[in-house]
Amino acid sequence: MSPLSLSTQGLEIIAAILAAPLFVGWVNQCRAWLQNRSAPSVLQPYRGIRKLFHKDAVLAERASALFRITPYMVFGAMVLAAAIIPSMGTRLPLTIAADSIALVGLLATARMFMSLAAMDVGTAFGTLGARREMMVGFLAEPALLMVIFVAALISQTTSLAAIAEHLSGQTLALYPSLAFTAVAFTLVLLAENARIPVDNPATHLELTMIHEAMLLEYSARHLALMEWAAALKLFNYVCIGIALFVPWGVATESQGPVGLLISVPVLGLKLLGAGAGLALIETVSAKLRVFRAPELMATAFLFAVLGLLVHLLLGA
Amino acid sequence: MPLRKWLERAQALPGSPSAARVVVDVTDWLAAAGDVAAAGGQLLALWGANVPAAGDARVRAALVHESGLLVLELALPATDGLYPGLQSIYPAASRMQRAACDLSGITSDDPDQRPWLRHAAWPASEHPLCASVMGVEAAALTPDDYRFQSVEGEGVHELPVGPVHAGIIEPGHFRFSIVGEKVLRLEARLGYVHKGIERRFQELRLYEGHRLAARVSGDAAIAYSWAYCQALEGLERVQVPPRALWLRALCLELERIQNHLGDLGALGNDAGFAFGLAQFSRLKEELLRAVQLALGQRYLLDAVVPGGMAVDPGVAGIASLADCLHHIAGESLNLRNIYDEHAGVQDRFVGAGAVAPELARRLGLTGLCGRASGQEGDLRVDAPWPPYDALAPVKCVQRGGDVAARVSVRFDELQVSLQLALRVLEQMPAGAVRFAMPVPAAPAGELGIGLVEGWRGPVMLALEPDGNGGIARCHPHDPSWQNWPVLEHAILGNIVPDFPLINKSFNLSYSGQDL
């Protein structure tokens, strides 16, 4: 294990934790601009998290230990996920620990904890949110797995770092199969991160909430961690997308420290573009009726399967 | 007996040009209510009159027929003190009867006797509008055991929502009975913002009341203060200068425009289309600023006063307001195109919360929501009061009854009101805007009626002077009374997450009906 790979690993984790709220701030800023509103500062999410950490936590009377440990579990799962996503370099010591299928499992674990914690307190809204979250989740996961299978088939490996390394080695090669899966992945990203058109992160209408409904009983540091974890999740998803579909610029085995230095601004640029694109999608869409979400996820699955077929039949 | 006979028996009331009163006995009470219903009329309001002496309790019902308002007045029978309830003829009567029981202590013989405005704040034996209550008594708080209708069956959940909500909105409690996401039944409980407005009226002088009236439901300030002044000016036999009447109409249309702009934005936002909210909020803000420039207030809470208007726009104010209205007319047409052609928004709007015209008629759905369900009532056209007799606005009616229809009526009315306001600005007569009011001379026992089509629907205000320049009784009526119960029907068969959108498309007043 070289010092370089260790520093890559450390840099990635720290960058993900620190930059995730910034990415959310950037998306919010783009959204405000697109709607002709004056935008909040890009640092606003940090201020929100800081404010929450300074408050005293209020716990529901019958909250069990599960309710209290869930924010740490979810946050931990997201940090671990960040550790195995090759956002800057592909030499990550921790990738041996988990491949891309385990990554999906890791995200599912976080979801399971959140849903259980939401039901733990026994309020109507928590259960409502948990139920809807599981409905969206169990439809989105197969589509996400399909997306990863296509990339894995192309690269002959399920390790995300190896996939990114393999794909970035193909200089601007176009895979039609990946084009299909990119569409599928975008839909999954929107659904899994509670974005419009599946959920509305800005809503105050408790009856329409999915993700937010599960957080209604959280306060102070618990809520701060949950929101931070949500930002990390979005950051992770975007980084997975970058690793699968636009991996060029990621630091690989052969490039040495220079590659790592270059990969940081490259990742920044890609995130800027991804954030603007996400804001655009959210501005031009309305929120779907809850029962249309399965149709959207079915579409995502269909696109992923199409990608798989294109790869198997055409080898492209 | 046909409606015509009742109208012949009735005596015209001061205030609204189309209001008349007939004093009835118990049998006539039901007969008249039934005859008005048979002629296509609806119940507008039901309230307890002032009680000048013990044992003289009276109940009044205001019925809208095709050309005006018929007020029935019934002295409570001495035998059992119960008056015949109107619920079987007009379902909307139920909550008004329950509220009248809470406040005035008059009880109907209808089956639902649960309190409506009285929560646990005061004991059932006390009635705030009775003279014996001083209004300062402290009552021991008792547990609130309000019984909701429950739904039995496999897999049925109860979902209680409110009165404290996740966003900053007015308080109301909604009890959903659901299977999965599907709503089997909704029962609302309101009254959380009961402020004792009617009691407060009794402490005010006749010439002060318009300010409180404007604050009954702040988003309809002009409608209420105009209704109050209409009733008062009728009682005092005062003619208002024509320019003041035209200015009032201008303000009423501005209020309609402003609320429709706000609602259209909020409806977009509730469908997850925040772009709509940003754009309509901008337009609304531009209008508020133009109104402030022309009339000195953003929200016109103190513009209408007894005898005329407190504000008069100058030439520059009129020009800038007209510019702003032209600008809004153009932009809102563009925004309507965006809403109409946005597949996602239309998917949320079309078919959600439908109230079929037949159901709307039976339940007495009124005002804007009624016009979206084929109920063609609009007092500005049906029973025009000056200056609407000269302005002759157009009715905007849809028959779909869903969220899309209510959005569509709002867009239509927005354009009509913009043109109406522009016409008023152009053709408004010159002259004084306010006559001095005489020393109040209206004798006790008279009843003045103000009747104005606000943006939400017909706003009625019944004013009884005490003979000494004070208010004996003032009952403001909001169209939300009729429409809240219909919301419970609109949601049936829809899914829970569509409720906020449907609720917003009705956008009913809590404050106006909680009083």
Describe this structure in words.
The complex is a heterodimer of chains A (316) and B (515). By secondary structure, chain A is mainly alpha-helical. Chain A has one domain (3-314). Chain A is built from eleven helices and no strands. Chain A has helices spanning 3-34, 44-53, 65-84, 100-120, 124-155, 160-169, 176-192, 211-215, 220-245, 256-284, 293-314. In chain A, helix 5 packs antiparallel against helix 7. The radius of gyration of chain A is 19 Å and the shape is globular. The two termini of chain A are 35 Å apart. The mean pLDDT of chain A is 90. Chain B is of the alpha+beta class and 515 residues long. Chain B has a domain at 3-108: 2-Layer Sandwich (Beta Polymerase, domain 2). Helix content of chain B is 41%, strand content 16%. Chain B has 18 helices and 15 strands. In chain B, strands 1-2-5-4-3 form a five-stranded mixed sheet. Chain B has a three-stranded antiparallel sheet with strand order 8-9-10. A three-stranded antiparallel sheet of chain B has the order 13-14-15. In chain B, a hairpin with a 2-residue loop joins strand 11 (304-305) and strand 12. The longest helix of chain B is centred in the middle third of the chain and has 29 residues, at 242-270. At the A-B interface, loops of A face strand 8, helix 8 and helix 10 of B.
